[in-house]
Amino acid sequence: MKKIETEILVLGGGLAGTASALSARKSGNRVALVCKDGGASAMSSGALDIAGDILAITSKPEHWRTDIAENLEEILIRNPEHPYHLLGDSGEKVLSQIKTAFEMVFPSSAGFLQGDFARNQKVFNQMGTFKLTAFFQQHMLTLDDLLNAEHATLINFPELNDFDGEFFKKNFEYWSSRLDAKTRLSILNANPGINSSLSCLEFAKFIEQNTEQILEKLDANLKKISSQILVLPPVLPGRKRLQILENLKQASGANVRELLALPPSVAGKRLQDYLEDSLKFAGVEKLWAKAVSFKCDGKKIISVQAQNRFDQMEIFAHKFILASGSFLAGGLTKLGEFKESIFGLEVFSNSHPIGKIFTEKLTGLNISAPHPVFSLGVKTSSDQRPIGSDARIVFENLFAAGSILSGANYIFDGTGAGVALATGLSAEEKASKL
Question: Which pLDDT does position 58 carry in this prediction?
């Protein structure tokens, strides 16, 4: 078995794990990161939420509150168990921590994201509806783009099996009009030269391998359009995205925008690629493996055992940061009872430990209501060390961050990225003080 030594071991390679690892490197620590795959970040829409309107009426998006600071205060007041309370006792303090974490992982100089910390924006997706979010990748289609545009053209690839241009147009025109954008949408069907049905993810790979061929086929058609905006399905590969956008802009004379997608998405893959590049550039040792067990001496963790197809390894560290995610990423499991999957930590619903219980008891009849099952997680002390049902710290040198924490319902409250990044940063800072 391979033996590895480091100062800080981060378990999880999503937003929270990346924030912890980058912070550790910034502090001059040796850090290793273990993850079995891209985690939930790769499975996401690629948009980054900070604080949604928890009082919003779903059927009335015109009245949804977009002010992030106000939404944040509402969440803190109405949910005393929310992980944001680990960051401070006021919305101002919490937002300050979120800003610091965002700038560390997504520096403005990188030009990867657009958005701001003041308000959520409406970003259109492949269904012709929209998502309200704080940050999103550059050149996505927003409501702001449409408010001053009379005409847009959608480039439709009929070979896509998870994007329907006519379906998109119907929903898009309804919602854009309802939100006071009077943009007329035309559809331009394009033939990329393939004879099979592909998903958006598969088509993105095809574009990456045949970029010049695709651009050549589109060039002649684009010269005929007279739209202010050219809309693309969510199919642009990360490595060549900016080149393709610029070429299409030169050919059409229009602003080129891409749509968000439902997970798993091309934008989610681009997000994960960005995180991996950031870790590599910072000198973080990334180990592609699954953590399967651990060794401890009383209340102190000594090492974690991990394995992949080729190796078994034991990683020794002084401090451990658990950022392994919730159910989607595999951080939480239910095999008879709910458990955290590496250290066997207890799982909580708010302040109540959850052991053996039917999952149906943690869901409601109203599908649009916030279901308790989505807020399950590990409960921690104020310094982010996991505790048990007796309120005692389980391991002295273990800290938790991200969606493994209990108390937030990210589908409902729109706090996923804010919690992940800020608690990832704060977990490392608190670990460094130990």
Answer: 86
